Amino acid sequence: xxxxxxxxxxxHVGAIxxxxxxxxxxxxxxxxxxxxxxxAGDSEIGAFVCLAEDDAxxxxxxxxxxxxxxxxxxxxxxDMPTEMGSPLYEGHRPRFDAALVAMARSAGATIIxxxxxxxxxxxxxxxxxxxxxxxxxxxxxxxxxxAAVAAGFVAAAFGSQTGGSVIRPASFCGIAGFKPxxxxxxxxxxxxFSWSLDTAGLFAASVADLAxxxxxxxxxxxxxxxxxxANGLKIGLYRAKVDDHLDHxxxxxxxxxxxxxxxxxxxxxxxxxxxxxxxGRDSHRTIQGFEAARALMHEHVSGGDRLGPKLRxxxxxxxxxxxxxxxxxRRCARLARKAATSLFETVDALLVPSASxxxxxGLASTGDPTMAKLWTLTGNPVVNVPGLTTSxxxxxxxxxxTRFGRDWEALTIADRLERLIQADRxxxxx
Amino acid sequence: xxxxxxxxxxxHVGAIxxxxxxxxxxxxxxxxxxxxxxxAGDSEIGAFVCLAEDDAxxxxxxxxxxxxxxxxxxxxxxDMPTEMGSPLYEGHRPRFDAALVAMARSAGATIIxxxxxxxxxxxxxxxxxxxxxxxxxxxxxxxxxxAAVAAGFVAAAFGSQTGGSVIRPASFCGIAGFKPxxxxxxxxxxxxFSWSLDTAGLFAASVADLAxxxxxxxxxxxxxxxxxxANGLKIGLYRAKVDDHLDHxxxxxxxxxxxxxxxxxxxxxxxxxxxxxxxGRDSHRTIQGFEAARALMHEHVSGGDRLGPKLRxxxxxxxxxxxxxxxxxRRCARLARKAATSLFETVDALLVPSASxxxxxGLASTGDPTMAKLWTLTGNPVVNVPGLTTSxxxxxxxxxxTRFGRDWEALTIADRLERLIQADRxxxxx
Lengths: 430, 430
Hints:
The structure is a homodimer. By secondary structure, chain A is an alpha/beta fold. Chain A has an eleven-stranded mixed beta sheet, sandwiched between helices. The first copy, chain A, is 38% helix and 15% strand. Chains A, B: Belongs to the amidase family.
């Protein structure tokens, strides 16, 4: 780590809070640094759609004072437009902050700007660039949030995931990403795509930063819980029905992560995907489509050609799903949740690929959500661990999944794995 | 029933649709009648905060053409302000319709206006009058919606329930009310108070009207399902821990309803409340408070004295609830849901009081939600059946509760009970 947290390539929540606590800098210094970095670099990256006015009221006492946060532009903010990445919401100004935004502000964080989202958090790509893999997609739908953290512009960012929209961009941009247990973070004031799937999530430079951020926003103990070592942990190497989608380098990354954990004392066991979970994954499309076609019915009906073609196709298809098919899919999802809980009777955590491979070249697609969407459906906590790469240096994220409600455990094990990866690569956290 | 549906004291969904189908009138006639009734009577009642512009595009073909709907002013509407009953939202204009509003419009219904809600659907009373019990509260928080149907202004209305805000005003205003299974009707675009409790609901003149309305909005089969008779039904007379709150006339109303069902061939069995359900009811306050303090954090922080005192007290208390206490309450709620499901292994439906008694005199309180809130927490479908009264003629609603997801069964049994009550009182539906 560089000596001063404001000189490091990325802004780390932990290092910033420590430096402020030690009076090596002020909260105002930290926020100004973030603003300078954005001013200097965002024309290259395109992570932000809007920046907040500089308000000088920086308390140094509050638990997140000095922490700059970029907020995906589907969360309401009272002081900036919330345009949902859609021409239908151009200039839209909510009156009050979304719950998560209000919680972050009340903890003293600075909402520094709104980040690029694909239209209504769907899959039509925008032109945000991937800071660590030029010429490759940063992933979506939380494209700008992941890019803003990866570029070192902000210490943290808010995103959302209905399929894989937090875990995939975190993987593609080589940063830590956290999709908490369903509804651990409130989604009030966040635009709905699918009410049984939409999950608010967080990005930060490292897993330890994520845990600290989540702890201080929610008031829940999510750090310092036996972070110690991997000794005695039982990790399931989850063999999914869709593993044939995997790029061979992702398969190798999972193998490498497993070996690191094993060397550190964990027991690795193979776990074949139960049928209920394969079927759960298959039900995702029906649930998402049915709910999106209702949640966005007025936008769909009145927006017409102004909506992106991929989004329109999802809504068109969703409008044809009958209640019977939806109810059947929800039954599948319920069984999948039960099956997911059972998995953790034999292992502490699962190790799974965050995406099918490295970020695809070009900006024509935000990538494939297949790998992450099962755990969105089941609601289990997932943490993307950065640090592994392809031979060409493209990021390959791997995820730690734990039992529903055991978010601290997912963060703790993911933190351990991140440190093992860094030690193996002969370098500490950057 | 009067010969022509537009001459009856109340507008009935079924009678209107039938008359349009039979070409005895047009959809335009039906909507104009509703507008005339509001113009003539709402200065007395105060059910509406805003009326829609008359748009002449009335299709007679659509499944709900001719049906006038009043919408609680916490549902977004693109063509009218959505002021949430709060000075904080004065003049607020959403860009798009809430999901339920869009669904109703897409089925051909006319959203005729926005109805009075208590502030942010909480409990500080407004001044809507009770059309059937002058000088008594219409209940809340869906005060205007219940009053608009009871006064005969509209064929139907939308409301929401976090404690008892659909079932109680329906009971107090002597109309039919439907709190469906949790999330049967989407809450997207409806202001959130408590995300695990908020439930969108419907009001209509009779239970049969409710079923028809709900069927045509959702595309689910909710009518014509063995409506036949009570023969062979097993109905649980639910003895709740809070029954000492009950007014003696409500206890008598429940007894009268039970006797009518029994005479029609149902078997009535006493059912003592399981401890898990009493504890579930007790957990409601913790869950509601914790979630409301987060969902409305920005309004709470910035609204200060502009918020009503009762709402502010709920938010102040909710802000002190720790995550541990909330998690404990959610575990109670989960156990209560399981216990509720078990109840229906021995009975088809429960018969419960909709409120603790008739509408209290005056407008200083919207009444007590204790009776209804348990079923909001468990998510079971509940239908308020009107028709019984105190000796002084004040309305006493009784509710039919069925298993989660069996909304058709709740509507069917409630419809049967309503007809028995009407037959007993020697009069058909008015």
